[in-house]
Amino acid sequence: MITVNADGKIMVRRCLVTLRPFRIFVLGIGFFTLCFLMTSLGGQFSAKRLGDSPFTIRTEVMGALESRGALRKMSDMLEMLMKRMDILARLENSTDFHKGDEARFPLDRFQPAAGLMERIQAIAQNVSDIAIKVDQILRNSLMNGKVMDGRRDQCEVPRDPKYPDCAGKVEWMRARWTSDPCYAFFGVDGTECSFLIYLSEVEWFCPPLPWRNQTAALPSPGPLPRGQAAFRSDLTRLLELVGTGKESLIFMKKRIRHLAQQWLRAARRLEQKLKGRQRDQKHILIHIGFLTEESGDVFSPRVLKGGPLGEMVQWADILTALFLLGHSLRVTVSLKELQSNLGVPPGRGNCPLMIPLPFDLIYTDYHGLQQMKQHMGLSFKKYSCRVRVIDTFGTEPAYNHEEYATLRGYRTNWGYWNLQPTQFMTMFPHTPDNSFMGFVSEELNRTERQFIKSNKVSNMAVVYGKEASIWKGKEKFLAILNKYMEIHGTVYYETQRPPEVPAFVKNHGLLPQHEFQQLLRKAKLFIGFGFPYEGPAPLEAIANGCVFLQARFNPPHSSLNHEFFRGKPTSREVSSQHPYAEDFIGKPHVWTVDYNNSEEFEAAIKAIMRSQVDPYLPYEYTCEGMLERIHAYIQHQDFCGTPSPPAAKSPAMQSPRSPLALAPNATHLVWSPEAGWGGGGSTWPPTRSLQVWVSEGRHTCTETCQRRGLVCEPTFFRFLNKKEVFLQLSITCDSTEYEMNHLYPAVAENVHECYLQKEPLLFSCAGYNTKYRRLCPCRDYRKGQVALCRDCL
């Protein structure tokens, strides 16, 4: 046996103990060498990070093939280094070193350990060699890059009259291309050629470069074959799509579950009504912008504290309707999800989308609209025709047209989007210039209706208002009401009863929706104190057999005299807390009185207590009514097609003969049968429903049509915007001018001056001026469904 003295054992032990720290040292050298080289290359290398989505991968700048080669060579060398380190680790692990065997350590096991030092020295030398070789690669890469840059800088800005903005855009790119990383993502590297490639292939301001014909990106593939939409009979998948994590989403899912059976029955009825009609399945993105963290999401924290629920009620119903109609949905409530689904390139939002928009329609709100504009670049304008904006109070054309709103003082924080006004979709049908989206209220079956009628408490009133501030200053009304009725409230509070709520009021606190419904089913009266405006609760109360009592506003509230409406993109005058209930429902279900007149207020309470009222729900607020309406919009509203011809710029320009004819009673115009019923075959609503009336000086077109049992239809304005129409109505025109004005077409009768509309986006049912009498396009509507004409479905 060979023995080893103590010095030999100590040397071996120290060698082996120092192997692991030395391995770490060598790895450190390799790591810092890599970092130094990557930094030296100035960001010419790029890599895909594990876990990134396809929309966050950052590719290398075009023309950096040499840099990629350098990266590949360096990677190979580092891989060789790691393999050698693995051999070292295996050798170390194979050396059995036990404390109990120190006295009998064999010398043959010292031979490999001694050889390890030589291998470590070789690895260290390799690290040095790597630095030298990569330095050589880097020098060659930079020299070749200069040659390439020289070739690229030979590009000249083309002078093509078809691309008048090209030179200006190139100049802008020279000065600002580093302002957003998205330009580098698309290959811009500061050279003239990269500017022109980007401006011709990613954007469309410059003509394609001839030498790029073979290397230009392949054309986008055509759309995939579109499937047919089929009515769905299960909402489970929808509940998964809505997601979790926010109180607002939890509320919406509860509502969907609660109304599920009503929705499913309504879907079956509409399916039978359509009789198997073929419908294309749409790919739809629903982005609820007001629930994103970037917009503040002020709603979610207030769901359980008496905050407004109207928007969440409407969004829950929109989601359910679109899903049951059989369309493919994607739901987002965060900016990150929105960017991922749209294909937004990395950067600050100045570049177009990386891919063609994969959605036929996008339903969003004003917050979402702003987020899309900030992150879609030029693609926002390209695809804005696919957007539908859920807009509670409406957006009138005068506020929507950016140039006009700026010049005429209509600009607000919410308007100037230059969309078609019917792309905005409202909660109530108060703005015919917009589309009426609506929501649904719970329907009662026959048994429930009979139960409610027999269990009503004739002297029980519920106050509309969950926030204590609504009750402030209402002591006078409450004192009168308390003489006749027992008053109930649902005011939110945490520990102490709100001082604004009088002691004689029985306050239930904030109630869950089903408990609130039960309270309404007992009550005789649901009373509003002027706020909130136009919410869903009054319709729910009327549907549960209550009478709704509300205040008449004199003068009407508007952006001119009331803080709540200031800044909203509408000049609409609100005559009561709930104009829809006043105008479309009315007595005996709705009473609108002057609260400042105590006698009128008290008399209304007495009359309501004596009245017998059945539960009532307008058809347009049933599940079937909403499904019917959204189906019609999806099938017929197309804002991406060829726009209608612009209005003529001068009277000298010829216009086609008017397709209108004088009605038999000679009071208005109707569509002439000789012109055909289709209005060119693509008009929706069908032109057979059109009637043309002349307004009085103080009436809007909305009011003019409403007085005749009709609805103003802005789609038909283009048929009125002709000089011949004035002649057909026996209106004398000494002159005819074409101007941008949201009140035109109109006539100033005192001076016999006629005006036609120059800008189609400004056709508007809203607005009046005592100087003018307006030409108003009206149409009929289906009973209980004001959004659709009789032949619209």
TrEMBL record:
Keywords: Coiled coil, Glycoprotein, Glycosyltransferase, Golgi apparatus, Membrane, Signal-anchor, Transferase, Transmembrane, Transmembrane helix. Pathway: Protein modification; protein glycosylation. It is a single-pass type II membrane protein. It comes from the Eukaryota. Its EC number is 2.4.1.155. The chain crosses the membrane at residues 21-41. Residues 182-778 form the Glycosyltransferase family 18 catalytic domain. Its main location: Golgi. It catalyses: N(4)-{beta-D-GlcNAc-(1->2)-[beta-D-GlcNAc-(1->4)]-alpha-D-Man-(1->3)-[beta-D-GlcNAc-(1->2)-alpha-D-Man-(1->6)]-beta-D-Man-(1->4)-beta-D-GlcNAc-(1->4)-beta-D-GlcNAc}-L-asparaginyl-[protein] + UDP-N-acetyl-alpha-D-glucosamine = N(4)-{beta-D-GlcNAc-(1->2)-[beta-D-GlcNAc-(1->4)]-alpha-D-Man-(1->3)-[beta-D-GlcNAc-(1->2)-[beta-D-GlcNAc-(1->6)]-alpha-D-Man-(1->6)]-beta-D-Man-(1->4)-beta-D-GlcNAc-(1->4)-beta-D-GlcNAc}-L-asparaginyl-[protein] + UDP + H(+). It is found in: Golgi apparatus membrane. Residues 253-280 form a coiled coil. PANTHER family: ALPHA-1,6-MANNOSYLGLYCOPROTEIN 6-BETA-N-ACETYLGLUCOSAMINYLTRANSFERASE B, ALPHA-MANNOSIDE BETA-1,6-N-ACETYLGLUCOSAMINYLTRANSFERASE. Belongs to the glycosyltransferase 18 family. This is alpha-1,6-mannosyl-glycoprotein 6-beta-N-acetylglucosaminyltransferase. It comes from Apteryx mantelli (North Island brown kiwi). The lineage of its organism: Eukaryota, Metazoa, Chordata, Craniata, Vertebrata.
